């Protein structure tokens, strides 16, 4: 979940995957063993990192390589150009690419719901959204937090730029801006979300569970989705199935045994163990058994992503809403 961009590099180059090596007791000779994954320290990438560190992918005959990206836009560009095979991305970034007609990738899974670690934080004197009239809200533009702010103001009958000043503040600078009084409210995601909440006089006014689509569809402003290149899916279907088996094994561990994941994850995030555990517990991790319901034709979740695309059009984030179901492929679960 990081910033959504309206411009992404459209690439058509598809690289060849490495040949699979045989495993004892198994015959994967006809399939690929190497998978290139694009990640970052954001919590949406915890399952892939954990599955690498715990050897879950290796147990499935896969050599999963990790490539770090500083932004969602860079990660999506790498996926479209064929430099990586799979990644987790914030849905708004995927929707922006879909709206431009790119068919180079498909949604194959939903890792988690992080609705409780992103939200709008205010000072003690602000008791409602109406109290923000005439004040300044800091938010990173073209992000899930930006969509949350626009939606909250809309629901409260307030207009950005007229009733409330909405300022573009880069996420890393948000805590300092709030602490210095440059903004009256801050919309942020973890870890900035946690840092601002811990400041004296700060209080949470709304998190992603107050987003209008969450109430009906269970969709946050920037839900994470697991995506893969279509060329990779078509060429290596069995490798994809094994990837998902190991991936959701890691998700089950994050959900059922969060303490056991901390040691591996702090190598990625550099957080203190206590803060790392808080972040793991702050998300709802979806297992393999829930994927069919989330991605099946007619699912409420995909309907929610469609509504999210339409909302992005309404708020000027993208030009047109794609038919989201055309990019969903649950065949590998």
From TrEMBL:
An example molecular function term from Gene Ontology annotations: ATPase-coupled transmembrane transporter activity
Any coiled-coil regions, as ranges: none
Residues that span the membrane, as ranges: none
Domain of life: Bacteria
Gene Ontology cellular-component annotations: membrane; periplasmic space
Domain SsuA/THI5-like per the UniProt entry, residue ranges: 45-259
Keyword Signal: yes
InterPro entries (UniProt xref): ABC_SsuA_sub-bd (IPR010067), SsuA/THI5 (IPR015168), TAT_signal (IPR006311), TAT_signal_bac_arc (IPR019546)
Signal peptide residue numbers: 1-29
CDD domains: PBP2_SsuA_like_6 (cd13563)
Family note: Belongs to the bacterial solute-binding protein SsuA/TauA family.
Protein name per Swiss-Prot or TrEMBL: Taurine-binding periplasmic protein
The species this protein was found in: Achromobacter insolitus
Gene assigned in the entry: tauA_2
